[in-house]
């Protein structure tokens, strides 16, 4: 039944292991002529933000060498050999001892040249702090003579601060991004993102040469049809070059990247689309006249089967990836669903016509299906309204208290109720409400897993529905933390509250005594905040509402997901262990039997 879930969980853990183990190796940031970087070794930039090494995408047997962030959701930011992968782990990166060019040597054939300069030179290659891989020519005494080549001039699918998008007017070189073929294959895909060659002060996304999206013109100092997520763009135009570039402040993100995805979206490091809206409902000047008028329906990710079994199938030889089926389906109103047919590399796909029904299931032949859904129906609304009335009733006692504290809380209480990231003593978070972290990456809310009625309070990674994040396609993979594993609530009347006497976090519900989330001793004035990192933190708070110290944080009690900044290991002072544990089943977050943490008897990681 739950095989797929388990496999995904294992893959997920393995990726995590590779990720964590990867950081234990070499600390050098430079390669000299005669040295080699073997598969398994890494170059690490000064301060350790970027690393260069070999990697394999999920479900693939192909090895690529690329630059990636030490952490972050979309780790890989540059791929050296996207169109010439190697099989097996025989690869090594070297500077050719005769001509000084950067090459990948491997047992399966001729070396793959990354640079190709004429003439014999003495060179070195350095991964610099900005993530740029730079090939230098050296004097015979070893000092740097000049730069020969840099990876920033040959971007793949991602733009980092310091990179350019545009054209070098002197040699005609264009800086352009090109998407991956699929999320599992860095090979060149259908989408490009770059400067419009005709109107050089705007950016465009093209699919197979056809314009799909334009940014609007630059002169106003900003783009229309562009979501401002703190990525500060600038435009430079002079006699030598015309280009766009951007900078990001550290308090926005430490891992900035802008990526053109395999389905033509433009995403930031959190997986958010910078474009305005979903396919078919763009607010920018998307030039796709063929999109069928679907009213307010949209495609959502589901897991299960279609009643008719197979739909219309397309093979890899038809040059149809999942994204091609997506577009085919969007453009044809009689299409209601699409899916990949080969899970390994999603280079084959199929579509289904109206009349076929979706069946939710977790059998072995179930898979991820993108299904047309109508927005929630009236029946739903009635349930919500009735539920809301009861909740209002239950929570009404807190109203006076809430009002009292409201003024002090205005710093974080923004215009929209949904934008609150902090809860003060006396305030309550009802089932149906949410706390939203600054910049909206995470939210805290009540939910039911799968089809069950049990309710849990959890932190969710708040990604847009149309963005598929690497492996984690199914809805519940967005869940990153659960407050009360082993004590679910049986109805929709739960409220998260801060106890007014001792300042602890508690969940009130209609069927019994409150569930304690934190248990800090003594009576204190506290507040709880959902931080940008997804960490839910209980702070001791002074009379004027300012934050004093951390009393409790969810990052100390991870559930099944490791987020950046969380720890696995042990605090030697308190003896507290940080480890992850799997869900009991696909549909129950109760503690399962798999754990991942630091083995107390060894210095590395292991399964338990
Ligand atoms: C190395 O050689 C170059 C040219 O031969 C010279 O300009 C440079 O100063 C030398 N550097 C050192 C550290 O001796
Ligand atoms: C390259 O420079 C190094 C000094 O860093 C020197 O030891 C080596 O002999 C030089 N190699 C060639 C081929 O000139
Ligand atoms: C640029 O102009 C040429 C010639 O007018 C036209 O064929 C091409 O489609 C234009 N490109 C874009 C991106 O508008
Ligand atoms: C954006 O960058 C420009 C220069 O690149 C700078 O002058 C400006 O202050 C930045 N704006 C913000 C909001 O960071
Ligand atoms: C739309 O799909 C239906 C059924 O899959 C097919 O018969 C029809 O030819 C398609 N129309 C277009 C314009 O592709
Ligand atoms: C996709 O996987 C199939 C095997 O499932 C393989 O034959 C094919 O070459 C792969 N295609 C790509 C582009 O990786």
Q: If helices are DSSP runs of H or I spanning 4 or more residues, what is the number of helices?
A: 4
- Report, as a whole number of angstroms, the end-to-end distance: 23 Å
Structural class: mainly beta
The outline comes out as globular
Contiguous uncertain segments of 5+ residues: 1-26, 277-290, 377-418, 464-477, 596-608
Instruction: Please state how the strands of the largest beta sheet are arranged side by side.
Output: 26-28-27-30-25-29
Count of the domains:
4
Rounded average pLDDT: 76
What is the level 1 CATH name of the largest domain?
A: Mainly Beta
What is the rounded Rg?
Answer: 26 Å
- The CATH homologous superfamily of the largest domain is termed Bulb-type lectin domain
CATH fold assignment of the largest domain? Agglutinin, subunit A
How large a portion of the residues is in β-strands, by DSSP E?
Answer: 35-45%
Distinct ligands, ions and cofactors found in the model: 2-acetamido-2-deoxy-beta-D-glucopyranose
